[in-house]
């Protein structure tokens, strides 16, 4: 049989050793040509590393790299170092002398293979050395651990020589059975792709030393009978078993492997799409042929058997391209084919439009392919200038890459479900991958789109121009290359256009278009934007969202996306005090609050742009503007904290013309205080004053509720509103400045009733009550002295307290504290408005007094029927009708010893019929009491006249 002819051995007809030797020689010829190409692509020091690797595993010398101990496995069958290898070893250790292994020596390393792009058109200066170390199957666990340590030491030494080398331990016996035992890392295409990994091994592996693959000697048409065929080769002694390595066959690939391979390539493709797209489409081809997929490795083997040994056409990446080309042309998908061609050209890393140092064989091969593709000089120049691509070219390329990755994801999901190979694990992985793709590529309102997922290494610009364009009804911000004058803008298409400035700047930052060296020319239009402000805004983004962002973890994808970090940019392009700026004056005022500045109480916070980075590495931009910008942004921030169980990290910045630092500090402090008070446990309320109106933030079951109170009258009404349970009301530090109500509210104590009073001009006093649920009540009364002012109120509160305790268990009633009383003191001697506690003797409350008790019951037409007891005398509406209060007033006046007129006070009120559930609290009693007292005192006044 001639070496030049096609070999088609049939074991049933017999096979001779000469035929097998011819096949072996052919495979080794291709192997050696590839190995020479690997060596040609390496620098001198890297070449030395590759040259020494077989020797380092064949010997176990303490002065050579990789020595661990005397027990470390070593010995590579059939290996004899050449003179150059010995010289390189002696350069590392002068005392090294090579000694042949004695007869009968048991070689513990069976073979070394270089995997991947080595020796192919895809090998580049950045390619690493991926080496499979196939060891004896019977190595004990400690020996395998020693061998792993040896590999790591050689990796470390190679790094000192400028060479990146990775070693993967393989037990051939367990690998052939499909038992991976985690011997190969996830960099080897994942943990569940045995046959596809074996396919890649057989078509790309370069034998560095040791046993050759037994698979070489099995014709492709005998793949299905591989076990029987190889057993006959060995049993009939056509080959010696110790010369070959059996890693298994490729008769059929399980459908689940395509799903696993696609998942892995999609995962890698999000960050580095070009290489992954090639392998994704190959997976698609294989899946389309399932269950009779014709692997590339079988094509490779058929070519060798047919004596087609052109190393260019047998290049694994050329073979890969040929298969993809045939598939896509048959489907008429020329656009996808052009993408595949670009991916291969970029992977090959040649620049045909230039005279470069590319290896001659590599350049010649790529020129041949490019001529087939009919690429012209202009297209070559564009591809070779990829490192100089600007954002427009990158965005165009991104659209096709994203389309391809999304297509692969959908195809993968459909294939897996239609073949019933989606189990719990792959279903979970598909869902995680879907989330990863969503986070990377999905468009949604407010999300900053990433246009450069590993397409161009650097798209930053030295000079950019920002301009406010459009009419007054629909202005927009546009970004341009270079420095343009206002008259040049119409002649240039913008890179990007957005409605608001921060959307544009965040996009420029996230995509690396603007970095620390970028300078901006600004045409602000009707805004107050300055170059200084733009530079400060970009610096803030670069500091708080530095690129590249941290890698997206699986743990983050298992949860819903959560905002992690928020930057608030206040008054971007706005002057909050335009009048003062135009007059070039600075207002001086004791009112320094940005939400109520100066005596005019101006709101200086006119807009807030929120940039939020979430746990899926999505950058979201939201704008709040107008008088309520701060409150709306605050409610949004609190809602994020409520939904996620914690508030995101917060930073506020402002670079506007007036009071920028104070404004940013105010916003940041306000947001932190509000979060502390509203999102605590139990939830509280937070009162904010903006100019002369008020707002209360409160946590509800469905989100943060914002209650607007336009004036102080509405505020008082809100404070007195009955509540189902206690809810603390915290005050923003600038709310109700210098007002006694603010001082009173800050003294709120849960489950305690507190009474406050202050003196007013004209012999009047103002009495305020904070009840056990935090509700507020206030009334003005004539003032004679402290005792006559307070005792009627305290007697009433004492009666209500006794009535409430009667409906409780004894233990619960003992837990209620006494009523606390305070005097409000006006500012004096540099001390602000404050309160002082007052001790009121209990016997003063319980000494003899004229008791006036009222009992209210429901009547017709939603009215109350009232009965008044004046010192045991009963006056009911059933008896007196409309004259009830007049009759009670006459009785009261008749019991007084003097004719002096002074108010009558209700000392007890029974609303038990109305309060059968016990929900009424003290303020509600006080409100009813006030109505009754006003009516009764009016009747007293009428009687006196």
Automatic annotation (TrEMBL):
<dbReference type="GO" id="GO:0006171">
    <property type="term" value="P:cAMP biosynthetic process"/>
</dbReference>
<dbReference type="Pfam" id="PF12633">
    <property type="entry name" value="Adenyl_cycl_N"/>
</dbReference>
<feature type="domain" description="Adenylate cyclase class-I N-terminal">
    <location>
        <begin position="20"/>
        <end position="216"/>
    </location>
</feature>
<dbReference type="GO" id="GO:0004016">
    <property type="term" value="F:adenylate cyclase activity"/>
</dbReference>
<dbReference type="InterPro" id="IPR000274">
    <property type="entry name" value="Adenylate_cyclase_1"/>
</dbReference>
<dbReference type="InterPro" id="IPR024685">
    <property type="entry name" value="Adenylate_cyclase_1_N"/>
</dbReference>
<protein>
    <submittedName>
        <fullName>Adenylate cyclase</fullName>
    </submittedName>
</protein>
<dbReference type="Pfam" id="PF01295">
    <property type="entry name" value="Adenylate_cycl"/>
</dbReference>
């Amino acid at each position: 049989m001639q070496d030049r002819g096609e070999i088609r051995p049939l074991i049933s007809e017999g096979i001779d050793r000469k035929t097998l030797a011819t096949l072996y020689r052919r495979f080794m010829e291709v192997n050696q040509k590839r190995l020479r190409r690997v060596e040609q692509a390496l620098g001198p020091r890297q070449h030395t590393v590759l040259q020494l690797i077989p020797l380092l595993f064949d010997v176990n010398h303490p002065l050579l790299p990789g020595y661990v101990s005397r027990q470390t496995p070593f010995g590579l069958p059939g290996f004899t170092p050449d003179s150059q290898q010995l010289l390189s070893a002696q350069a590392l250790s002068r005392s090294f002398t090579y000694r042949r292994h004695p007869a009968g020596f048991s070689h513990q390393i069976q073979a070394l293979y270089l995997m991947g792009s080595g020796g192919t058109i895809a090998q580049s200066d950045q390619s690493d050395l991926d080496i499979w170390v196939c060891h004896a199957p019977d190595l004990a666990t400690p020996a395998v651990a020693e061998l792993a340590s040896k590999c790591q030491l050689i990796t470390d030494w190679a790094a000192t020589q400028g060479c990146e080398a990775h070693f993967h331990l393989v037990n051939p016996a367990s690998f052939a059975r499909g038992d991976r035992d985690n011997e190969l890392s996830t960099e080897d295409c994942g943990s569940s792709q045995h046959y596809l990994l074996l396919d890649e091994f057989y078509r790309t592996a370069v034998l560095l030393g040791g046993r050759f693959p037994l698979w070489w000697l099995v014709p492709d048409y005998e793949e299905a009978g591989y076990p029987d065929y190889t057993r006959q080769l060995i049993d009939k002694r056509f080959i010696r078993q110790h010369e070959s390595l059996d890693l298994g066959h490729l008769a059929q690939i399980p459908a689940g492997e395509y799903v696993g391979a696609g998942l892995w390539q999609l995962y890698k493709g999000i960050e580095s799409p070009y290489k992954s797209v090639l392998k994704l489409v190959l997976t698609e081809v294989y899946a389309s042929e399932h269950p009779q997929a014709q692997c590339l490795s079988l094509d490779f083997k058929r070519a060798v058997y047919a004596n087609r040994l052109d190393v260019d056409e047998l290049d694994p990446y050329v073979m890969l391209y040929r298969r993809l080309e045939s598939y896509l042309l048959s489907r008429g998908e020329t656009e996808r084919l052009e993408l595949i061609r670009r991916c291969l050209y970029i992977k090959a890393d040649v620049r045909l439009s230039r005279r470069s140092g590319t290896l001659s064989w590599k350049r010649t091969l790529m020129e041949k392919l490019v001529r087939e593709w009919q690429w012209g000089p202009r297209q070559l120049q564009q591809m070779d200038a990829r490192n100089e691509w600007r954002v427009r070219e990158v965005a165009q390329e991104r659209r096709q890459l994203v389309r391809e990755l999304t297509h692969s994801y959908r195809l993968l999901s459909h294939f897996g479900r239609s073949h019933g190979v989606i189990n719990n694990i792959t279903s979970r992985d598909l869902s995680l991958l879907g989330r990863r793709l969503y986070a990377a590529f999905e468009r949604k309102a407010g999300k900053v789109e990433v246009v450069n997922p590993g397409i161009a290494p650097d798209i930053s610009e030295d000079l950019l121009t920002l301009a406010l364009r459009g009419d007054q009804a629909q202005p927009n911000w546009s970004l341009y290359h270079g420095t343009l004058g206002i008259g040049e803008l119409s002649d240039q298409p913008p890179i990007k256009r957005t409605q608001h400035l921060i959307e544009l700047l965040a996009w420029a930052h996230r995509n690396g278009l603007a970095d620390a060296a970028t300078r901006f020319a600004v045409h602000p239009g009707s805004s107050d934007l300055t170059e200084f402000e733009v530079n400060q805004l970009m610096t803030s983004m670069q500091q708080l969202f530095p690129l590249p962002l941290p890698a997206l973890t699986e743990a983050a994808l298992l949860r819903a996306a959560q905002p992690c970090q928020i930057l608030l940019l206040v008054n971007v392009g706005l002057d909050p005090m335009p009048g003062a700026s135009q007059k070039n004056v600075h207002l001086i005022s004791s009112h320094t609050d940005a939400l109520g500045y100066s005596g005019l109480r101006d709101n200086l916070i006119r807009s807030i742009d929120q940039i939020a980075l979430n746990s899926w590495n999505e950058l979201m931009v939201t704008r709040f503007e107008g008088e309520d910008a701060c409150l709306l942004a605050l409610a949004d921030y609190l809602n994020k904290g409520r939904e996620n169980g914690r508030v995101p990290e917060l930073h506020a910045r402002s670079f506007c013309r007036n009071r920028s630092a104070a404004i940013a500090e105010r916003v940041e402090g306000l947001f932190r205080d509000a979060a502390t008070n509203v999102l605590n446990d139990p939830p509280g309320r937070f009162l904010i004053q903006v100019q002369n109106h008020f707002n209360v933030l409160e946590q509800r079951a469905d989100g943060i509720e914002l209650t607007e109170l336009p004036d102080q009258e509405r505020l008082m009404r809100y404070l007195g509103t009955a509540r189902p349970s206690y809810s603390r009301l915290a005050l923003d530090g600038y709310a109700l400045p210098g007002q006694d109500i603010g001082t009173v509210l800050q003294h709120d104590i849960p489950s305690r009733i507190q009474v406050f009073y202050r003196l007013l001009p004209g012999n009047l006093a103002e009495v305020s009550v904070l009840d056990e649920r935090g509700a507020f009540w206030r009334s003005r009364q004539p003032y004679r002295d402290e005792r006559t002012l307070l005792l009627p109120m305290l007697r009433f509160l004492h009666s209500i307290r006794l009535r409430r305790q009667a409906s409780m268990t004894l233990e619960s009633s003992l837990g209620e504290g006494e009523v606390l009383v305070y005097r409000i003191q006006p500012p004096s001697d540099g001390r602000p408005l404050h309160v002082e506690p007052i001790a009121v003797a209990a016997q003063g409350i319980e000494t003899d007094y004229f008791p006036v008790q009222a009992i209210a019951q429901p009547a017709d037409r939603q009215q109350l029927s009232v009965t008044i007891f004046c010192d045991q005398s009963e006056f009911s509406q059933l008896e007196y009708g409309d004259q009830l209060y007049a009759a009670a007033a006459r009785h009261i006046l008749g019991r007084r010893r003097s004719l002096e007129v002074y108010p009558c006070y209700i000392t007890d009120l029974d609303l038990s019929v109305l309060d059968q559930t016990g929900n009424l609290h003290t303020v509600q009693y006080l409100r009813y009491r006030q109505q009754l007292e006003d009516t009764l005192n009016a009747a007293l006044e009428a009687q006196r006249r």
